[in-house]
Amino acid sequence: MIQDRTTEITTLRQRAEEIAGYLRLDAKREQVAALEETTAAADFWEDPSAAQATMANLSAIKDEIDTYESVVSAIEDIEVSNELAVGEGDEEMAAEVDSGLRTVVTRLDDLEVNTWFTGELDSRDAIITITPGQGGLEAQYWAEMLFKMYLKYAANRRWKVDIHDATGGVEIGIDRAVFTVHGHNAYGMLSSENGVHRLVRISPTDEKKRRQTTFAGVEVLPVIPQTVEIDIRDEDLRIDVYRSSGPGGQSVNTTDSAVRITHIPTGIVVTCQNEKSQLKNKETAMTILRSRLFEIEEQKRREELDQLRGVRQDISWGSQIRNYVLYPYQLVKDLRSGVETGNVEAVLGGQIDGFVIGYHRWRVGSGSETPAHAGAQ
Predict the structure, then answer these.
(1) What are the strands of the beta sheet with 237-242, ordered from one edge?
(2) What distance lies between CA 105 and its chain's CA centroid?
(3) Does 196 or 120 have the greater pLDDT score?
(4) Spatial separation of the C-alpha atoms in residues 171 and 169, rounded to whole Å
(5) Average pLDDT, the chain
(6) Could you give the CA distance from residue 247 to residue 244 in angstroms, rounded to a whole number?
């Protein structure tokens, strides 16, 4: 007997209407009209950098609107198909209705995720820095494992990645990794990864095959728009150039193209050596420096508003946000959201959506934590 799916379809339609409200689609349609008027101005391309940023913003907003409207259209098609299936007793069409409903649920889930990222910087690209913590050489190995995990995750999501620095460790692994992830809501999504990650396993470097616990820190910052003013004085900077090293160094080691920028007042040091061009490396290093200085100012502002996320922890025991246990059992567990899985291999292979989305669902549901820059102006 063919089941009438009218109730399920009505529920999905109501859910879609709620999501439209959360996404503020009416306001975004007005924003599209205003941006299109801006792009039509005769002097629009006089500032190429600003023009490209505007075009990217316009494209992202239009994509979001188009995605929502296509989901609504799919629900309407399913409604018609359901009426025909029930009215004519068409089992094949009924099966198509059931399949269509499952697809729409998945698409609505994806749209719901977008409603969680309403901060001004959530839609920005993300700068990620991975640093080994306690654990000696094994920590450097662990940092490299995390580095590869995030590269695979970005590839799964079809996000573009620019690697700025991936300095090899003394013997194994990496001493640090700095890279930018370009994608819709990249910062909003990846802010879930900010913190200390703990690994428990039998160390491949230990001849006695003892269990070892190691740590690595992951810092996630938004790429700050050029329109945000950040005071960086030339006299506060020390810029050094040197020959590139580490992974990929053979192809870029022909010139002194690597750049190290030290911000003297804060002691922040930023390095970039991926590009063959010294100028491009300097530009990238300055972009990272701006984001880190912005983070310092935001931290001060949050302290003044008594909205601290919490004191920064050492990259060691008791401060981790997620555990990755490979021995004596296999389990990855997020200590904030409670999300866990025994498929460690899949996680290290870049399948971390369950943890990323699970964290934000917990954050939104609990109301106990907000994105680092949700209220940035």
Answers:
(1) 237-242, 258-263, 268-272
(2) 23
(3) 196
(4) 6
(5) 87
(6) 9
